[in-house]
User: Which sequence fits this backbone?
C-alpha cells in the first residue's frame, strides 16, 4: 500500500539561520512576544509504496541520507501517517 | 593542446564565457552535456556557474547525480584538474569532492558585485599563475555562497583542505570584505591533493581585455598548463 510520509528538514543547531532570524525579527515587530530560536527548514511529503509503515519510514530515511537533506548542514525528522 | 571540458547542466549559464576563457588560455574547449557518460578525452574539467536544476532542494544537490558525474569523479581521483566555479563549486561540495556546503548568504539576498580576493595557495590546479598573497578584483554573483563546514576545529579543515582564495576588504569601496558571511572569509578551497578546486567568484567574466581587464584569465592559463604538464609527463 501507499503510505503518506512527512519529512522535515531543519538547519542543524548552532548553524546560523538568517531566514529564521528574519522571521523571528518580523514576528517581534508584529507584537508576537516571547518567540525564540526560530528555524526555517523544509517540509517534504512523499507517497511511498511499502508493505508496512516501518518499511516506508526506512525508505524515507535512506532518501534523506542520499538526497533530501545535507548531513553537513541539516537534520531531518521522518513521520509516517497511520 | 590540452582538452578542457565544460559541463552544461540544465540551468547552467556561464558555460560560454568559460569556454572562451579556456580558448584564450591556450586550451581546447569542449562543451559536454550532463547526460554524457564519458568525458571525450578531456584532461581537465570545469563545472560552470549558473543554477543547475533551478537550485531546487539545495544548490547542486540534484546535479551531483547526473550521469556525467561518474566519469568526473574518476577523473578527479586520477589527479587531473577539476574546477568548480560558483554553482560548480556547490555541485563539488554536494558530491563530496570538496568538504563543506554553501548556504544562503547571511544577508538573504542575491549579491552581484566585484570582490577582492587574496590568493592563499599557488600550488593548486588553477592558481599557479598568481603569486601567494596577491589580491585580485573579480566579479561575484550568487545567492548561496556562505561556505560552512562541520569539521571542528576549522584549523583541521584548513590543514586537510587548503583554502585557495579568501575574501579581503575591497579597496576604496566601503563594502564589507566578506560578501556572504562565509566561514573565515573562505571564497574557495581545494582537496588535499590540490587538483580539485572550487570557488564562488567568476574569473571567467573578467578574462578578456575587451571587458576592461583579463585578471581572471590566470586561473584558466594555470589549469591548461597543468594539463599540458601532465601530457608531457605521460
Assistant:
Amino acid at each position: 500500500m501507499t503510505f503518506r510520509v512527512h519529512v522535515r528538514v531543519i538547519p542543524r543547531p548552532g548553524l546560523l539561520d538568517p531566514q529564521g532570524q528574519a522571521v523571528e525579527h518580523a514576528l517581534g515587530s508584529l507584537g508576537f512576544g516571547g518567540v525564540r530560536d526560530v528555524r526555517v527548514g523544509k517540509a517534504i511529503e512523499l507517497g511511498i509504496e511499502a508493505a508496512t509503515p516501518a518499511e516506508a519510514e526506512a525508505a524515507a530515511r535512506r532518501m534523506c541520507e542520499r538526497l533530501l537533506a545535507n548531513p553537513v548542514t541539516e537534520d531531518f525528522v521522518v513521520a509516517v501517517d497511520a | 593542446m590540452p582538452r578542457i571540458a565544460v559541463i552544461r547542466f540544465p540551468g547552467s549559464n556561464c558555460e560560454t564565457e568559460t569556454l572562451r576563457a579556456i580558448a584564450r588560455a591556450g586550451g581546447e574547449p569542449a562543451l559536454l552535456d550532463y547526460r554524457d557518460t564519458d568525458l571525450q578525452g578531456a584532461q581537465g574539467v570545469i563545472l560552470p556557474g549558473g543554477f543547475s536544476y533551478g537550485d531546487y532542494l539545495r544548490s547542486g544537490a540534484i546535479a551531483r547525480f547526473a550521469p556525467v558525474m561518474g566519469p568526473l569523479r574518476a577523473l578527479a581521483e586520477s589527479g587531473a584538474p577539476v574546477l568548480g566555479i560558483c554553482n560548480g563549486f556547490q555541485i563539488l561540495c554536494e558530491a563530496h569532492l570538496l568538504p563543506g556546503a554553501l548556504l544562503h548568504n547571511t544577508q538573504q539576498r542575491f549579491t552581484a558585485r566585484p570582490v577582492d580576493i587574496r590568493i592563499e595557495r599557488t600550488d593548486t590546479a588553477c592558481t599557479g599563475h598568481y603569486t601567494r598573497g596577491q589580491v585580485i578584483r573579480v566579479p561575484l554573483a550568487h545567492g548561496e555562497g556562505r561556505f560552512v563546514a562541520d569539521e571542528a576545529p576549522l584549523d583541521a579543515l584548513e590543514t586537510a583542505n587548503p583554502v585557495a582564495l579568501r575574501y579581503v576588504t575591497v579597496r576604496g569601496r566601503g563594502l564589507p570584505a566578506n560578501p556572504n558571511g562565509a566561514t573565515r572569509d573562505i571564497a574557495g578551497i581545494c582537496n588535499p591533493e590540490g587538483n580539485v578546486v572550487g570557488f564562488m567568484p567568476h574569473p571567467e567574466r573578467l578574462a578578456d581585455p575587451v571587458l576592461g581587464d583579463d585578471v581572471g584569465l590566470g586561473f584558466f592559463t594555470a589549469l591548461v598548463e597543468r594539463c599540458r604538464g601532465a601530457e608531457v609527463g605521460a
In short: Chain B has a mean pLDDT of 93. Chain B touches chain A through 21 residues (CB under 8 Å).
